[in-house]
Amino acid sequence: MTTATTIRELAERYDTLLFDSYGVLVNESTGLPGSRELIDWLESTGKSYFIVTNDASRSITSRTEKFVQQGVPVPSERIVNSGCLIPLFFKDNGLAGAPTAVLGGSDATEYVKQGDAKIVRLDRMAEASVFVLADDEGFDWRPNINALVSTLNHKVLESEPFTLLLPNPDLVYPTGERKYSFAAAALAGLVESALDRLFGPSEQHHFIRLGKPHAPIFDEALRRAGASRENASVVMIGDQLETDIAGAVAYGIPSAIVTTGISRFSTAEELSALPREHRPDYLLTSLSLG
């Protein structure tokens, strides 16, 4: 059952609040109504909170500067993004020194460098064994996605091992009021569909996903909050059923959906009728403190 609530009530009920970024606090150009006042209030009261975002396209410094430009000054230590999971993935999977092609901008490439990978230029993609699809910008996506499919086709036929990494599993994100843009997962879906068509469905030919709804980004957020999965008093606040809410449900923490972003449902009755894997515990019509 989904229950309507307020942000103050959630702050009183839980030790730590986790917020998605786009569609919850900001859109591409500005802060959403109430977000500036909310962040100021959280900071002034010392409340534990983190911004848990699937963004892998910007460094933490760049993301912090962008928040300031949007009128929502979030301190850098409060940001947990999927980009910061990239170096951890390389280290945990013994990929230090692995030749890696990065489809994304300079900040995404820097995350990969932090994992001690060897960066391969996109025009020499065939030399790579790891392929990181980090963003939908920062490269000419059409020729390079075509080159990626061709390269992977060759590697499968030659039985050459490879790793596909998708830090950001978002399909779309809001850029303004009723305006949206495709995210990196849309491009990953093209690659996976092509490989499935060429060789049949196989998880080995699919991207490993780090951000919501998958566990690694929640693990990192709870680590920074000084909590564990077993004893966390934490709630995830987001706008996307398939990432924010499904991720929280699968991870075993409560969730709240806001109606300012992508959610196509706006009433507690509609949300209560959803399957459990997509059903939030709470409904927020705004982040207003009033």
- Report helical residue fraction: 25-40%
The level 1 CATH classification of the largest domain is Alpha Beta
Structural domains: how many: 2
Instruction: From the 3D structure, determine the CATH topology of the largest domain.
Output: Rossmann fold
Strand content: 15-25%
- The CATH homologous superfamily name of the largest domain equals HAD superfamily/HAD-like
Any idea what the shape is?
A: globular
SSE pattern, N- to C-terminal:
EHEHEHEHEHEEHEEEHEHEHEHE
Largest sheet: 7 strands, parallel
The radius of gyration over CA amounts to 19 Å
Q: Strand order within the widest sheet?
A: 1-14-13-12-2-3-4
Number of helices: 10
- Based on helices, strands and strand pairing, what is the structural class? alpha/beta
The overall pLDDT, averaged over residues, is 93
Give the name of the CATH architecture of the largest domain: 3-Layer(aba) Sandwich
Uncertain segments: none
Topology overview:
Blueprint: E1 3-4, H1 7-13, E2 16-19, H2 35-45, E3 48-53, H3 60-69, E4 79-81, H4 85-92, E5 99-103, H5 106-114, E6 118-120, E7 130-133, H6 141-157, E8 163-166, E9 172-176, E10 179-182, H7 184-199, E11 208-209, H8 215-225, E12 234-238, H9 241-251, E13 255-258, H10 268-272, E14 282-284
Helix pairs in contact: 4-5, 6-7
